[in-house]
Amino acid sequence: MKIKDAVILITGASSGIGAATASAAAKRGARVVLLARRKARIESLAAELGNALAVECDVTDPDQINLAVQAVIDRFGRIDVLINNAGQGMNAAVEEINIPDFRALLELNLIAPLTMMQAVVPSMVKQAAGTIINISSGATLATYPGSAAYTSTKAGLNMLSAVARLELASAGITVSTLHPFMTATEFYQTLQTEHNQAKEQDNKSAVVMHSPERVAQMILKLIESGEAQSDLVPEAYGGSYRE
Predict the structure, then answer these.
(1) What is the pTM of this model?
(2) What letter would DSSP give residue 111?
(3) Which range marks the domain in which residue 46 is found?
(4) Tens digit of pLDDT for each residue in 13-55?
């Protein structure tokens, strides 16, 4: 799919990968829709980008999702691309995973992307065209202590994407999955884990982290290519990426 003039809906657009992708897409001539809970941030970004729409939305709330999607249709008349980017991490040993926290993580990382997909697919079916990009995690390509809760939600997203790609192909809808590597965003600050541990992990990872802008460019390439999946994970960490 071409980026220019496409209506691109991005969740988790208030910072990090989401905000960087919105900026990169807007520079390429796309009409971007910013979804996030932090209203002030997305409104400020939308003002900077120009032909953009900011919609306050908690993607774990189906009613808010439906209202947001309708707002996009009302404004632009169509949705060409959905980028399911909103998510959160958790670091805990299996025996220490807090079950209520894990349920909340499942809601955000797996159920919310499914709900978003279900909300936009009818419009894409009518158009006989559409692209869905699900942002997974490079951590699903290997096994790390403390990652079970987070990677199990993202592994579920991987399978959801693969099956959706198979089911929706005949309707002209392409579903793709991106596996970013460690990225310099607010991810570690919002990680559900002991704060000092998260800060230490963030500091150790700083030397190998990718910028959100690098991830954004890979997302745009995936929209254009329609490939099933792509990754930014170095070969040493289980991926296929080479500097």
Answers:
(1) 0.90
(2) I
(3) 7-182+210-225
(4) 999 999 999 999 999 999 999 999 999 999 999 999 988 999 9
